Amino acid sequence: MSDSQSLVDIVKREQGQFDAECILFIDLSSRKLTDANSLSMCRNLITLNLNNNNLTNIRAFGVFTQLKILSLAQNQLTSLDGLQTCENLEVLNVSGNDLAG
Hints:
Blueprint: H1 4-15, E1 25-27, E2 47-49, E3 69-71, E4 91-93
Parallel strand pairs: 1-2, 2-3, 3-4
């Protein structure tokens, strides 16, 4: 999926929402996504599941200040840059990535 705006449109359509800021839960697991930064339009997310994709960075995820559950397992992440401001994060799953540490 290359058109990042269409990613938000898909989520809005699946959830029957017209306002991206009203979306609280997103499950886009196993969609072969290479970029999910456009989801930053959904600023009030509480739960985000992006398992089993091809994501390489999450730099734009810093806007998710309400996020409590984030699942990024089985992607191609090498860094968690972008999560520094996610102060409400309670659950983080990054298993199966290439994180050095």
